[in-house]
């Protein structure tokens, strides 16, 4: 099992495929489950690097004082350790904040940027939702946090479909495997972040994929937030792909369609 070691931390990683490197940044609770089906598809076209962020999976536990900057710098350290000078990035969900910050801070190290189900700033509705998720995790348990998240990120049609029960049980198990302190720390690290002022510094060609019905990563937030449309319009070279009749987890609900969009973007 390969690990990259830097700054007294161990970060698990895995490399599949060959060609131009694509580093994937998983969501805050689903971890690498975000990419379990995606990686084999993308690895047919590019070299895919998956890794457990600090606090998740096989990587080191999250330190007490960790903030979003630390996760961003971990990405830089991982690239340095693996000898990767420049890579494409694929960021999802809350960890899209890390991808955006890295692309703005180190534009010379990012080829293309694919953002799936991401926002750049929470509005009030999103902050209230994240506050409730945190309280559930701390006081009720990660199963309840998983179920509330499922209600937020999946459409009613998907939840009523035959495949939903297996998916929900897998989601509960994945949330259980995420330490509560990591989950809470990621929420606290992102709920006050504003990536709006940094967007114009992102020079990488940027694809933003958003579910039309997403509550957690809406195409258009309230006036205080920045959703998928705001990201696509705020970067120097962005475009928005809206997946119709789909929620936040577009990679789960419309797997092949989203993979095709990402592959097409990377090949341009």
Structure description:
α2 crosses α3 (96-105), α4 packs antiparallel against α8 and α5 (142-153) crosses α7 (164-177). An eight-stranded mixed sheet has the order 1-2-4-3-5-6-7-8, sandwiched between helices. The longest helix has 16 residues, at 124-139. The chain has one domain (3-267): Rossmann fold (3-Layer(aba) Sandwich). The mean pLDDT is 93. The protein is 41% helix and 18% strand. It contains eleven helices and eight strands. The radius of gyration is 17 Å and the shape is globular. It has helices at residues 38-42, 68-82, 96-105, 124-139, 142-153, 156-159, 164-177, 180-190, 228-234, 250-253, 255-267; strands spanning 3-6, 9-16, 21-25, 47-51, 87-92, 110-116, 205-211, 238-243. With 268 residues, the protein is α/β, with parallel strands linked by helices.
Summarize the model shown.
This protein is α/β, with parallel strands linked by helices. The protein has helices at residues 38-42, 68-82, 96-105, 124-139, 142-153, 156-159, 164-177, 180-190, 228-234, 250-253, 255-267, and strands at residues 3-6, 9-16, 21-25, 47-51, 87-92, 110-116, 205-211, 238-243. It has one domain (3-267): 3-Layer(aba) Sandwich (Rossmann fold), CATH 3.40.50.
- Number of DSSP strand runs: 8
CATH architecture: 3-Layer(aba) Sandwich
User: If helices are DSSP runs of H or I spanning 4 or more residues, what is the number of helices?
Assistant: 11
Range of helix content? 40-55%
How would you name the CATH homologous superfamily? Alpha/Beta hydrolase fold, catalytic domain
Task: Tell me, briefly, the overall form.
Answer: globular
Low-confidence runs: none
| End-to-end gap | 34 Å
Please describe the biggest sheet, giving its number of strands, its sense, and whether it closes into a barrel.
8 strands, mixed
**CATH class assignment:** Alpha Beta
**Within the CATH hierarchy, at the fold level, what is the topology?**
Rossmann fold
Strand content: 15-25%
Average pLDDT number: 93
Judged by helices, strands and strand pairing, the structural class is: alpha/beta
The whole-angstrom Rg is: 17 Å
Q: Which sequence of strands runs across the widest sheet?
A: 1-2-4-3-5-6-7-8
SSE sequence, one letter per element: EEEHEHEHEHHHHHEHEHH
Number of domains: 1
């Amino acid at each position: 099992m390969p690990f990259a070691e830097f700054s007294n931390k161990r970060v698990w990683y895995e490399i599949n495929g060959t060609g131009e490197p694509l580093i994937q940044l998983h969501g805050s609770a689903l971890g690498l489950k975000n990419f379990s089906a995606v990686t084999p598809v993308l690895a047919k076209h590019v070299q895919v690097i998956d890794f457990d962020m600090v606090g998740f999976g096989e990587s080191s536990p999250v330190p007490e004082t960790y903030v979003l900057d630390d996760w961003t710098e971990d990405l830089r350290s991982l690239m340095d350790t693996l000898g990767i000078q420049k890579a494409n990035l694929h960021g999802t969900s809350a960890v899209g904040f890390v991808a955006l910050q890295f692309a703005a801070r180190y534009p010379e190290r990012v080829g293309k940027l694919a953002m799936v189900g991401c926002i750049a700033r929470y509005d009030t509705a999103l902050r209230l939702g994240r506050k409730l998720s945190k309280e559930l995790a701390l006081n009720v348990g990660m199963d309840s946090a998983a179920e509330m998240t499922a209600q937020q990120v999946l459409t009613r049609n998907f939840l009523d479909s035959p495949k939903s029960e297996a998916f929900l049980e897998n989601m509960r198990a994945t949330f259980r495997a995420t330490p509560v302190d990591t989950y809470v720390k990621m929420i606290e690290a992102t709920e006050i972040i504003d990536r709006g002022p940094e967007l114009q510094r992102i020079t990488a060609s940027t694809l933003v994929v958003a579910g039309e019905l997403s509550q957690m990563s809406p195409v258009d937030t309230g006036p205080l937030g920045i959703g998928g449309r705001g990201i696509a319009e705020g970067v120097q070279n962005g475009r928005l792909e809206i997946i119709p009749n789909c929620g936040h987890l577009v990679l789960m609900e419309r797997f092949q369609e989203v993979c095709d969009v990402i592959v097409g973007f990377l090949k341009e």
